DNA sequence: TTGTCAACTGACCGAATGTTCGGTAAACAA
DNA sequence: TTGTTTACCGAACATTCGGTCAGTTGACAA
């Protein structure tokens, strides 16, 4: 009755969502601290002050973007497939999902991986990220205890190097030209779990 | 005869080198754009203007730091061991040397890996870095052609994931508590070349 | 004792920063 | 027609920025 058309064809213009999307893009190009509100305004095609009509300020943009990445990570570890079954299977699943999430939310995860703790917002994000890292580290330790991955390298080190590879995706992946998330995950798992070297005995 | 003591016990105080070292440390903590000259001055225990007695300005500090990392990389690829012998051997050597350089010049390389191209200085550094990356990529391709590393993953992808692991060292390595460069390189090569998974047939 | 000089300080500059505010044109509702 | 809302502009705000410069300090040489 009221609200005749629930979402009437809203006239051209921005909204909090489109501002966030553009902002994250610019943040990733120039870095958060290297981006001025003037830069954002230019990218949006409006003046600086128009931005404040849609969002409360620069730091809120960062905060919302980081949450979008972190929420994805924590939804992942909350899944049953991350906590039941053989540790090696869970680890593979988590790595695969991480690659998928990285690509699904590329700009948001990219931003997260570059945070250094310059503000309360950044420190809070860093702490949530460390919690995720601890989860992965436990998984790797379990897989080593299980005997399914090599035990001659410290599990903490394995975790870091493995996710060093995974996270590097944000540094070079181009959605337009790159492989699909699944293809990328396949290649990454083949490499990290199977190893680069061809068996001379084969 | 002249200059009675070539380097007399110079009185307390800073010099271009110590300013650079401190600056790079702060740049890595807060990010280059997130660091003000006031921040630097505080870290050095002097006023802002004292910094300009030793170095020409903020961007020169960045430039000198990046050169220190890039010069190391190019000295490495200029070595004979990077260009003669089996490709797989050269690749292993370059990876090992990269780990060593990363740790030897940790703060400088860390800074280099975070550059995004916001200024002429940064763009020039990015271009030199890309040249290094191309060298590595060629090496990996040769090793694949040789048949010494797996051919079922694109060489460009292998390069990126491999050096994703290597470069991640800057994100977590702590000189005081961490392993030596050689131990780290051993573990990394074991993992990346040998693979994580334990052979079920073994 | 005087002079030199490296190493700094403190006051300052113009430009850029993130943010606020008063106003306004266009679309829509009554 | 009138009033309201949406989405914006332009000017201004206080603050911070990188950088300059005239002067001061203290160690040392002559």
TrEMBL record, chains A, B:
Superkingdom of origin organism: Bacteria
Alphabetically ordered keywords of this record: DNA-binding, Transcription, Transcription regulation
Pfam families: TetR_C_24, TetR_N
Ranges of residues in domain HTH tetR-type: 13-73
Alphabetized GO MF terms: DNA-binding transcription factor activity; transcription cis-regulatory region binding
DNA-binding region: 36-55
Protein name listed in UniProt: TetR family transcriptional regulator
Origin species: Nonomuraea fuscirosea
């Amino acid at each position: 009755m009221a609200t005749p058309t629930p979402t009437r064809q809203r006239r051209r213009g921005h909204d909090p969502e489109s501002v966030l999307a553009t902002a994250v893009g610019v943040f990733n190009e120039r870095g958060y601290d290297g981006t001025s509100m003037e830069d954002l305004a230019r990218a949006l095609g409006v003046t600086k002050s128009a931005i404040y009509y849609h969002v409360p300020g620069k730091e809120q943009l960062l905060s919302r973007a980081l949450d979008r990445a972190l929420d994805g990570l924590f939804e992942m570890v909350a899944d049953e497939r991350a906590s039941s079954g053989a540790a090696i299977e869970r680890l593979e699943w988590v790595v695969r999902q991480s690659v998928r999430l990285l690509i699904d939310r590329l700009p948001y995860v990219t931003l997260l991986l570059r945070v250094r703790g310059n503000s309360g917002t950044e420190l809070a994000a860093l702490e949530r990220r460390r919690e995720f890292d601890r989860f992965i580290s436990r998984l790797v330790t379990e897989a080593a205890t299980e005997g399914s991955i090599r035990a001659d390298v410290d599990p903490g080190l394995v975790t870091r190097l493995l996710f060093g590879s995974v996270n590097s995706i944000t540094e070079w992946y181009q959605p337009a030209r790159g492989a699909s998330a699944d293809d990328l995950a396949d290649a990454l798992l083949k490499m990290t779990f199977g190893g680069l070297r061809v068996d001379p005995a084969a």
